[in-house]
């Protein structure tokens, strides 16, 4: 039997399908849109299509993320903090601190040698320093989101961003452009502002190396590089950092299967 983890976030929903050997058969990322359940169903369909499996092959489903409660076909709901810790432990067992920056929030997580959460701190009061923040900054710069990392790498200097409030920072970026500051230098300033805020979270929780980063913002090498410079240490970024939470959820689903089996269990999907 197979195990499925689905992570429904504010901007994207991810799914990971694994077998009993913990091999990843499918990893999918879709926009969440306005309906969390529809996003979860879409991820389920995409995972089945990618793997060539049927619904009946899935023995148990674990849902995580802010939209996890809406997935009534899941047998269990688990917090994204627990799932990210479990997922990163599977990928790199020696990691002791994880920073996860998603679409609308960011988290610093202390991870035990067994992949369990020792402590965490979470910024969910506003979108400052998150994926949404970067989306708005890219819009103000009239660039695509995936162009920011390359743009920042060409900077010859940094233009500091004084506000991390998304609304005020957007106005500040527009003003800096009007003052003829190079886009590349503004981008570096944005990356450094995010790194400074993130480093503060890590220091409050107590940074213990090795350090890893998950979530969509981890795909921005400019943010990762700025954070490494702030902290003076290297950061492990998985090949696909956006599915770490869904991977952790799938591993927890597999734990359930190994203990209880798949017959008659809630969370098993029929054809």
List the helices and strands and how they pair.
Blueprint: E1 2-8, E2 12-18, E3 24-31, H1 36-51, E4 58-64, E5 76-77, H2 80-91, E6 97-101, E7 106-111, E8 117-123, H3 131-140, H4 148-153, H5 166-178, H6 183-205, E9 211-214, H7 221-231, E10 235-236, H8 244-260
Parallel strand pairs: 1-4, 4-5, 6-9, 9-10
Antiparallel strand pairs: 1-2, 2-3, 6-7, 7-8
Your description of this structure?
- The strands form 2 sheets. Strands 3-2-1-4-5 form a 5-stranded mixed sheet.
- The longest helix has 23 residues, at 183-205.
- The chain folds into 2 domains: 1-92 and 243-271, Nucleotidyltransferase, domain 5, CATH 3.30.420; 93-237, Nucleotidyltransferase, domain 5, CATH 3.30.420.40.
- Helix content is 40%, strand content 20%.
- It is an alpha/beta fold and 271 residues long.
- The mean pLDDT is 92.
Low-confidence stretches: none
Structure summary, number of beta strands: 10
What is the H level of CATH, i.e. the homologous superfamily of the largest domain? ATPase, nucleotide binding domain
How does the overall form come out from the CA principal axes? globular
């Amino acid at each position: 039997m197979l195990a499925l983890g689905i992570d429904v976030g504010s901007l994207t929903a991810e799914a990971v399908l694994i077998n009993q050997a913990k091999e990843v058969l499918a990893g999918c990322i879709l926009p969440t849109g306005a309906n969390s359940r529809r996003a979860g169903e879409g991820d389920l369909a995409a995972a089945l299509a990618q793997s060539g499996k049927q619904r009946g092959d899935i023995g148990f489903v674990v849902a995580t993320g802010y939209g996890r409660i809406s997935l009534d076909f899941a047998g269990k709901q688990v917090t994204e903090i627990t799932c990210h810790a479990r997922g990163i432990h599977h990928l790199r067992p020696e990691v002791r601190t994880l920073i996860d920056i998603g679409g609308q929030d960011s988290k610093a997580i202390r991870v035990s040698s067994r992949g369990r959460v020792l402590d965490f701190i979470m910024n969910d009061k506003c979108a400052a320093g998150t994926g949404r923040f970067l989306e708005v900054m890219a819009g103000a710069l009239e660039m695509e989101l995936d162009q920011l990392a390359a743009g920042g790498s060409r900077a010859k200097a940094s233009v500091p961003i004084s506000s991390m409030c998304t609304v005020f920072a957007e106005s500040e970026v527009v003003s800096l452009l009007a003052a003829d500051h190079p886009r590349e230098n503004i981008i570096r300033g944005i990356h450094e502002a995010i790194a400074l805020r993130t480093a503060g979270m890590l220091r409050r929780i107590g940074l213990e190396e090795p350090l890893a980063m998950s979530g969509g913002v981890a795909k921005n090498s400019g943010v990762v590089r700025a954070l490494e410079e702030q902290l003076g240490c290297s950061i492990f970024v998985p090949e696909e950092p956006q599915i770490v939470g869904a991977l952790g959820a799938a591993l927890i689903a597999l734990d359930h299967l190994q203990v209880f089996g798949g017959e008659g269990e809630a969370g098993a999907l029929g054809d």
